[in-house]
Each structure stands twice: as C-alpha cells, then as structure tokens.
Design brief:
By secondary structure, the chain is an alpha+beta fold. The chain has 2 domains: 3-81 and 143-183 and 290-305, no CATH class; 84-140 and 185-287. 30% of the residues lie in helices and 29% in strands. The protein is built from 11 helices and 13 strands. Strands 2, 3, 4, 6, 7, 8, 10, 11, 12 and 13 form a 10-stranded antiparallel sheet that branches. Helix 4 (155-163) crosses helix 5 (165-172) and helix 7 packs antiparallel against helix 10 (264-281). It is elongated, with a radius of gyration of 23 Å. The two termini are 22 Å apart. Mean pLDDT is 74; it is low at 1-27, 105-117 and 307-311.
Length: 311
C-alpha cells in the first residue's frame, strides 16, 4: 500500500468517534470501532465467486478473497435502497466488458477465485473483435444495503491477532467487511461473428453504442442469403440472485446457445425471448429479501475502524 493511502487510513481512524455501542462482557468480544466514517474500499461480487461476503467476515487483500471464517461480531442493520436498471452496451473491449460484468481483470488473484472461471468466459463472449459484434444487456435489481455501525473482534481472534499475526491474516484477513449491497445482476451477451471485418462494417457500421438486440437483428435481416450463411450468432447469460432456474427456460447459463445466420428467424426469436425474460420475468423474482444476494461490498483496514481503545 502506498504512503498516501496509509496516511488516509490513519486519518480516517483518528476521525472516528466512540458513538457505537460497546459490547457487554457477556458478548465475549473486543470492540475495535465504528465504521460509519471510516475510509472504505468497494469490491464487486462475481456470479461464480467461491465465498460471498457476510456479516462477521474479513477480507484478505493479498489473495483477493473474503475470509471463510467469521472472526467478528458485527451489528449490520439493513437500510432501504431498492432500485432497478436495464441497459445495452456494444462494441466493448475486454476492459469495458469486464467492468460491465463487475469483473476485475487486473486482480491476478481473481483468476483463482472463480470456479471454472465462468465470469471470464462471459467477458470474452461480451468482447467485440475485428470479426465480431457484441451487444451486452445488463439488468440489475438493488435490494437493501447492510451497513455496519459497530464491529467487535471475537476475544479468541483478538488474542490470535496479537500472538500469531500470520495465522490471523490467513484466518480473518487484513480488512473488515463494513457493508454489503444486496441485489441481483443479469447479463446477456448477443454475439454475432462475421466471415470478415468488411462484412461486419457493412452490416453494423451505422449502429449506435446503445443499440439493442432488435436493432442489430434488423441490420442482419438485410444481408444477402450468401452473407447470412457466413454469420454465426450466439447468446450467453449469467444471473446472480433471483431465481436462475427461470433463466434456463430461455438460455442455458452453462454454455452459449448458437445458431446460424441463414436461420435468422430462429436467432431473432432467441434474442427476443432473452429480452422478454430480462424485462418481464426477471423483475418479478424479487418479492422477498431472500431473493437478493450480495452483489458488492465495502471493506476497511482494521486500523481504519479501531478506536482509541482498540486492540
């Protein structure tokens, strides 16, 4: 960590007040601070993350993973924060596609976090190339925000932190999960591969960056019979939260569904079904809080949430 960021964390720790409730003796925990004013770092949760953030868990910046062992006693009440959003993006490079899918491709450790690296396969499907054109549909549902207002380190973990810092780091991490945003994300990639870049430009050159499935399909319908035979269309999807089993009725999220351009009607019908799912079926899956899962979370270093009487 650079010196500037270290200084910022130190300043945040100094600015904290002692307004949080202190655990009683019966709680068997050591108060280490409040987090409302602490400087935090935000992280995204990938659809295939091995460990989801939860109250009481830490975060290891070296491995880029949420700690699997609960080391903290955390008061994390829910705050209303519901909203929804649907947007189209097209012609993205790898970095843009990864950002749209909430994937940090620059974090080397992340390649070991995602089982089967399904998120990275999805990012590749959403990335346009010289011979392909991709439209990515992002639909999201935001639920309650779980925000910590008190954090206490379990007594045995406080002792471990003093006696064996290396084991404490492996077990509890070097940061505290301070908030968790519940919600859901649906991503559908519509990828069209052309025989040549010239054909791609001819059929898609006038499309805007926010073009949807329908606009792209309309352009493809103008291709000649021979051109259509050289076009391949694939649809792939991932869903985090809600009821992903409903998605399988439209698209198998485990593999891309492919059809050829000479059967354009079938391809268009597939895309229309995916769009209908995103705009109709998907939003109806959130009648209860149980339908939401963590989609992002914030962390702070232990030093940033320690008060003057911290461990």
């Amino acid at each position: 960590m650079n010196r500037t960021l270290t200084a910022l964390f130190a300043a945040a720790a100094t600015a904290l007040t002692a307004a949080c409730a202190v655990p009683t003796e019966e709680s068997n925990a050591t108060e280490i601070g409040c987090v409302e004013d602490a400087l935090t770092i935000r992280h995204q949760v990938a659809p295939d993350a091995m460990q989801l953030p939860a109250a009481g868990l830490g975060y290891n910046t070296r491995s880029g993973q949420v700690a699997a062992t609960a080391c903290l006693d955390v008061d994390m009440p829910a705050r209303g924060n519901q909203s929804s959003d649907v947007r189209f993006s097209s012609q993205m490079d790898t970095a843009q596609a990864s950002s749209a899918l909430s994937i940090d491709v620059d974090a080397k450790a992340h390649y070991g976090i995602y089982e089967g690296q399904g998120s990275f396969k999805m990012a590749r499907e959403a990335t346009s190339s010289s011979g392909s054109y991709t439209i990515l549909l992002n639909a999201s549902q935001l639920g309650p925000l779980l925000q910590s207002n008190r954090i206490a380190l379990a007594a045995d973990k406080a002792e471990l932190r003093k006696s064996d810092p290396a084991t404490f780091l492996r077990t509890c991490g070097d940061q505290v999960v301070t908030s968790i945003q519940l919600g859901s994300r649906l991503n559908i990639a519509y990828r069209v591969s052309f025989a040549s870049d010239e054909l791609k430009q001819q059929l898609t050159g006038s499309l805007s960056a926010s073009a949807g499935f329908g606009e792209l399909s309309t352009k493809l319908a103008k291709a000649s019979s021979s051109q259509k035979k050289s076009i391949t269309i694939s649809l792939s999807a991932t869903q985090l939260g809600g009821d992903p089993s409903q998605l399988t009725k439209v698209i198998d999220p485990k593999s891309a569904v492919t059809c050829s351009g000479d059967d354009l009607d079938a391809c268009i019908q597939l895309a229309q079904g995916a769009l209908a799912y995103a705009s109709d079926s998907y939003p109806k899956q959130f009648g209860t809080r149980d339908a939401y899962v963590p989609v992002s979370f914030s962390t702070a270093e232990y030093s940033a949430v320690e008060n003057e009487t911290g461990t």
